[in-house]
């Protein structure tokens, strides 16, 4: 079965992305850092989809989660690694789902974060 040429390039790109998947988080602390980094990135890159208030709340959530992780023993290097993983995921989301789909996946509060009233 042959694939028409117009589908070959997108198919090759999707297969290449599938091969570049980042490793699954190894611990609950890493999961927490990854969620905070995605929230921070969503606030920075997706303001037009979430609005100014959502951007502020996501930044507050990310800051609170990073502070909690630092108190639990995480390092700045751990936070930077989580930010890199978030950027890589966002790039994959962008390729697969476009701007709106990527932002839908980034504009989420970290697990366990309760926004103040």
TrEMBL record:
PROSITE patterns named in the record: PROKAR_LIPOPROTEIN
First and last residue of the signal peptide: 1-23
Keyword list, A-Z: Signal
Keyword Signal listed: yes
Record protein name field: Lipoprotein
Organism of this sequence: Martelella mediterranea DSM 17316
